[in-house]
Amino acid sequence: MPLQPLEVNSLWTMEQQVYIGSSHCPIDGWYQACRVCNLWTAAELDVAGKVIPLCKGCQTKCHNACAKAGAAGGSTIAATSSALLALDQAWEDYLNKIRADNNMALR
Length: 107
Hints:
By secondary structure, the protein is α+β, with helices and mostly antiparallel strands.
């Protein structure tokens, strides 16, 4: 039996994808840029109740820096958390501008 064409109503259609810069990564895809090194990652870190895209390498570096400062009597956990939240907010502002330029819902 020869193949029959699909009815138009049964075809799956994708929404128009909006990409970050000249990359091939969708703005709201599974992979996001690490907020520290900008590598694409699916890894995340919960910082003060906010989930921030952070690659495993940067998670390790942040953990080691906090542990080293804690052993020396300093406290960088709050400073590191504040810095990560500020980086994430800057990224979200950038992504929201792209969303607004493409008539997408803002986050």
